[in-house]
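Researcher: Let's continue the batch. This sequence belongs to RNA helicase, and it's 836 residues. Same format as the previous ones, please.
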Amino acid sequence: MTELLNKLAKKIIQSDEYQLNSGILFDSYIQSLTSTNEPIGRGVIKKLISSAQIFYMSEKRNIRNEGAILLSMMLDICGDTYKEILPIANNIFVNSGDFPNIQLLCQRFPELDFKLNFYSEAQNEFRETLNTVLELDFPLTDFQRLLWEDLSKGYDTITSAPTSAGKTHVILNYLLNKVAKSDGSFAAIIVPTRALISEVAGKIYEIAKDGGYDNDIEICTIPKKELFANKTFFVMTQERLHEILLLGDLTFDYLFIDEAHNISDKSRGVLLHLTLEKMLEDSYPQIIISMPSSNYQDSFSTIFKDIKFKKEITQISPVTKIIMSIKLKGSNLVISRNNSTNIKIIPKGFIKTDFADIICKLGKGQSNIIYRNKTNDCENIANKISSRITETTQNALLEEAANYVEEFVHSKFSLANNLRKGVAFHYGPLPSSIRVLVENLVKEDHVKFIVCTSTLAEGVNLPARNLFLKDPIQIIPYEKSEQIEAVKINNITGRAGRMLQHFGGNIFLIEPDKWRFKDYFNNEQEEEDKVPTYFKSINEEFEIIIRALKGDYDHDERDQYRFYTIANKLIREFANNKLDKTLNADELNIGRKKRALLLDNIKLAHDSLRVPAFTLEANPTVGYIQQNKLFNFLNKQKQLEDWVLPHPKSGSLYDTMLRICQKLIEFGVYQPTADNNPEHICIITKKWILGNSLKEIISEQIAWNIRRAKQNSEKPKSVNTCVRNVIKAINNDIRFRLSNSLKCYQLILQTILVNKNVELSNVKLHSFMEIGACDDRMINLINMGLSREAAKEIDDKLVKKETISSRKQLFDLLRKDRLKTIHSITKKEILELFSE
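Model: Same format as before. Here are the structure tokens for RNA helicase:
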């Protein structure tokens, strides 16, 4: 029967009549995006809905996808005109187990009221009952139901599904249900970026509030010394979780690795690998691995060697993707649907050939994501879109947001005026509070156009009806650009269309013939199975690994952290008699001679180790030879008090930090990014640690930039450039590179102080760097989950003696109008995170 359906579907697609009718539908669909619908005859719709039913029954992905595209377009442009297609659509969704779209169908067409025969109604009710679970208040797709069942049975689970398939929502609901109803449980959730920490933590709080569990759980997002509540979610990057694990005395009941394909990411993969192995030393959690591509499903086979995973994998999403190519031809736009003969030519309606004009033409009145490769491109496109919006937007929330940006970042930061037009940009170097502000405005549909960089590929959930792509590439500083990995492109395109709001999402490829890489959407291209970066680097960059083991890999190189982390991991495995696991792994394919050479160099490195094994483990990104050099230098110092790390409020903070920083650079422990020098970094670090406002730091940087430009008779950098540079310096140089280096420094010096029986205060400055504060009250506020900007504003409004050690105290202050002068956005941040 299946083979017969496939042959029938193929025959239909190849027929001239189908090409004609689907072309009529596509013409009307495009017309609906730019003006009004072109009416379609009942006969055409009747034939197309019959075709869609047949396509949906096929097991072939491309045929089923064609049916989903047809149905999505018909519901959008003909649902109100031809009510007959609604019960057919309902039946298709029921048979597909697609209950989110049934819910959307009822929301979109509330007048939907039809009677089926007894057998059909009973069948539909049975399917809905099957896909409804007691713990959730919404029916699931078939994929979500099977995933829930596996999790509920306690299986270690690997799941792979497109971005909009709803897998994360099911997993978080499951974890919250288990932890909240337990006598006490710890759940670790690993996310790849800091931006995702706040998003996932926010989702957990939201689910907890809906279930009445918000007072039963605690969410920890940064390492801390205090005791944890007995029901705690640790939502952290691999770096932060690794630091927590080093504290010891913690065992976890659940481990959820979100965006798990990052095990193969160059910059994050090795530390994620190391962190997972560290967790398994003391914990035996239920393991849940989630990824957007099935090519990564075997990437964890060596890490979790003896664990049998239940796998739930699908390529189907409730939100279908309609991929279209856009070409400029004279005064027209030529729009063609990928993998079909559908073409529609429409007048441009504008004179120039600017990208922003195309976006405004096709995206007017809808929610739109525009992907750009660089941060400054995001700003430029946002400015151009804003300039083309002539209508005045009377939106109090947008005005409130724009005012917040001006007050807490800079009055001339272009995001403020963009927001007033319902336009925004979103990229890594944005202050955390601004990033969350923008994300909420997008999700609430106040911002209609958002221009993004690769933050979309990191799992930040910003879905929209339309996605615009123009020549997407992976930019590598000072090197040739590369093609974006397929998994990241899929993550980006997965943002087109929002579950429970759209049946389909539009993906517009702008002049794809001019792209540097033209095979992003080649359905015939199969991506190879992925292996962890740890093994891939040893296999493909063996000579560099040997150099890292010898300590002569240049610490100025961009990938130094990856290679020294691998070298340290190999040495640690050798010391713990666990190296055989790596050398005998299926993923390692270097041959007998190279294995012997690798082993020899690991032994030599281990024998020359001067620092304690714990220090090496605690500082995985710093090469062991660099640590040895630092150890030898400090061990020879007669006046160790000159080299201890001072308290943040010490008058000698800058001078001491600069002196230490210069030594760290000399020994290869620390390397500033190319655009920064140690003096500049230490100045910003001091202000950051002391809790200076971000606006103050940015304004001083802008003033310095103007003075320098005047001295050199140059044009000063723009405000936007200065804002980006400050945030990049804080995120990359201070909170990552210098923080890691000073953590290593502090541990080595502490070891020497203990060995020499010298009692000196040696402050953990790296902890203050990560947080961006040193006063207890501000630290407590940040630990509660507030952004640094919100914590700073609240801290400034209160008298110094006022203490806030719990969210109840914070709410009491809010209720008693003690915080009535704080910005309305800050009040919202408090209410969103800590509402009772």
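Researcher: Any comment?
Model: Residues 2-130 form one domain.
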